[in-house]
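Bench log, entry 3. Co-assembly request; chain sequences pasted below exactly as received.
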Amino acid sequence: MNIHEYQAKELLDMFGVANSPGGVASTPQEAEKIAASLNTQDLVIKAQVHAGGRGKGTFKNGFKGGVHLCKTPAEIRDTAAKMLGETLVTHQTGEDGRVVRKVLVAKSVEIQKELYFAILIDRAISAPVIVASTEGGVDIEAVAEHTPEKIFHLPVDPLIGLQPYEARKLAKMLGIPTALLKDAATLFENLYKLFIARDCSMVEVNPLVITKDNQVLALDAKFNFDDNALFRHPDVQAYRDIEEEDPREVEASKHSLSYIGLDGNIACLVNGAGLAMATMDIIKHHGGEPANFLDVGGGASEQQVTEAFKILVADSRVKAILVNIFGGIMKCDVIAQGIINAVKAVNLPVPLVVRLEGTNVDAGRKLLSESGLKLTAATDIADAAQKVVAAAA
Amino acid sequence: MSILVDKNTRLLVQGITGKSGAFHAKSCMEYGTNVVAGVTPGRGGEVFEGKVPVFDTTYEARKQTGCNATMIFVPPAGAADSILEAVDAGIELVICITEGIPVLDMMKVKAAMAKSKSRLIGPNCPGIITPGACKIGIMPGYIHKEGKVGVVSRSGTLTYEAVWQLSSRGHGQSTCVGIGGDPINGTSHLDVVKMFNDDPGTEAFIMIGEIGGTAEEEAAEWIGKNCKKPVAAFIAGATAPPGRRMGHAGAIVSGGKGTASGKIEAIQAAGIEVAATPADMADALLRRMAR
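Structure output for the full assembly:
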């Protein structure tokens, strides 16, 4: 799950992670008020959308740039008026762009040095690892490739957490001057506390800066959260902004279906994540393009299968549908009944190929053949893929 | 012969009175698995299906019945606690079926288990089966056949697919192990590969992986250097978009790491036969065996 920059700032503030003062506004007047309260001539206003590349983006009204430096609250107000309610297009949003509903107004700081600091889970050692670098404000993948010696890795013991001495050691490695050592160490410790307290899977501060007036600040922070742990963080759940998500995925999540939208024209409905991925792969192998990843899970109900089917059928890009089920916990007759119900409700506009195997397979096949549904039965996964690719062509 | 479980396995089911726990405990019993106890806190003293005693704690279950393996069906919020309870009771083999356990919980479990003798399989896995002897998990028993091919996989349904292909070509299985789709799990591909390599009852095996992490690469490297048995592999997720979690919490390509192509390269370099598609898993192994 992604969150907005202003929400990330709220989390940093809540855990005492030093960052640039500011606030979020939904109207030009609110923006002006925040700017006035900051009591400075160095101001920045940033459009709040999930996509990157905002600074170089263009609004559909012709206004250039989703990030602007301003001198006065009046200037902030006028700029906010050009952003709010308007659609921002960046290299990450696609042509449709995203509607800006909020702007972040903050003090713009003068930077002396940019650093990089991230915490993530290292699967290989089953522990959190801190990745830090003296090279901040740039693409860290490029630093890792060209100057790996400038990146430090510090694994953290998951049972005792980040210790103060480790935070100080890191600050030293990053070349933070003695006068700022304790401030930097406190920032690292608080960020680690935040990472654990909210079940993050990644926190990336890029850049972490030393300002010309000698402060250590987390200037930009990106968060990823463990979806499995959202149940115990209602505050993080509340950060979800469905306006920023693929509407097909929003609909699927309402029915607890694991769905990821793609750009192809062959829809798939599969049980199990591994088989769902493999089904996409074999469609591609036979020359087709999958329209989605959809795992209906091990214990899906008839109702869920029906809803899943409706999402596939509603997608105008879809030219054919492949149902590939290997019943384990999932019973084939449940899948069959779900499909039959869905087709009764929504008329089937495209060819349907069905491959059923596993638990209650005979009952499932019988239901489908007696339903009078127009479908192509497939004997195995290769046969199914070939038939659906041919049907979509 | 087989690995990890056989006729002598005495199974406990944690969460036996829940909907899934009860359903699958029953199906394991029908397959012939020796289910000796169940645990549901607050339900101690009940009897499941007329013959399996239910206890309040795993400690009691172990003491009273001598169970040496456990299958966990406890919901995600309490599953980590149940794993640790089983470890504390000294149960040798802990199989956690539960999907959706927070990663930080599993991180602590893994660290806490470092000093224990118990082995954890999963979480978020279909379980483990030695055909004809013992089924612990949610896989459909009837697709399996007794035989000499091992299967290890992160995915449940892809395992069924491979087993189905093997069985319909007349090749039975020694043991099939689902290690689970989470980023942090108890038993890795490499752990199971080593067991298959040492098991006289396993003549060849299939390793099924997917995008994310480096577990398949590590197993492949070891196979290349140490394994004399024929191996075939399939990696799912070649068409998955980077940065997206593909159903399994662990199936994600991040920072250019954990791609299908990288894994396939490592597997080929180790002399393992790669299945081009999921329909080719059993045939890939048969090709390798014929070489």
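Chain A touches chain B through 54 residues (CB under 8 Å). The mean pLDDT of chain A is 92.
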